[in-house]
Amino acid sequence: ETRFNKKKIFIPLGGLSAALASLIIILSFFINFNQVKYDYYVVEINPKIILKADSNGNICEVKSGNTDADEILFLIGDELINMNINQGVEYISSKALEIGYFDLSSANVMKLSSTSDDLFNLKESLAEMFCNQGYYVAIATDSFESKDLDFDKLNTVSYLNDIDEGNIQEVYFDNYYKDN
Question: What pTM does this model have?
Answer without folding.
Answer: 0.67
